[in-house]
């Protein structure tokens, strides 16, 4: 893999914290972040924005997977191989042709009326168990056609 993953940076903005991580790749089929920082309160809701600036593959699809990490050393090597990390949501909206996806995450706080959404192309609201960490992966069905940088932003 030829991924270059930045550490998550945090900045206060109008009484919220905005976390940003960029991931650049060249010939990969998975573009994943490092684990979220300890300062992200995984018991509180947050919004995740995934910005894909260009067409990622000549022909294929790209969807967002959310992994839950259970240790300080959790990581993700490929879309199907996590160390102390487990796939907890797979969204099917296609990001391949260059798109921005906003997903609202509610860590197990909603009772009744809202069901956990898995494989959602339109309703980007997920109810997840509150894991100590999360890892986000843009899972491509084909390798990147060019070098690409994807920006992941969390607002809490």
Helical percentage: under 10%
Count of helices? 0
Mean pLDDT: 81
- State the end-to-end CA separation: 31 Å
Shape: globular
Largest sheet, in brief, is: 7 strands, mixed
Category by helix and strand content:
mainly beta
Unreliable stretches covering 5 or more consecutive residues: 115-122
Q: How would you characterize this protein structure?
A:
This protein is mainly beta. The chain has one domain (4-155). Helix content is 0%, strand content 49%. The chain has no helices and 13 strands. The strands form three sheets. Strands 1, 2, 3, 5, 10, 11 and 13 form a seven-stranded mixed β-sheet that branches. A hairpin with a 2-residue loop joins strand 7 (75-78) and strand 8. The model is unreliable at 115-122 (pLDDT under 50).
Salient structural properties:
single chain; 156 residues; mainly beta; seven-stranded mixed beta sheet; four-stranded antiparallel beta sheet; 0% helix; 49% strand; globular
In brief, what are we looking at here?
The chain is mainly β and 156 residues long. It has strands at 4-5, 9-13, 16-25, 30-32, 46-52, 62-69, 75-78, 81-83, 85-90, 99-107, 125-128, 133-140, 148-155.
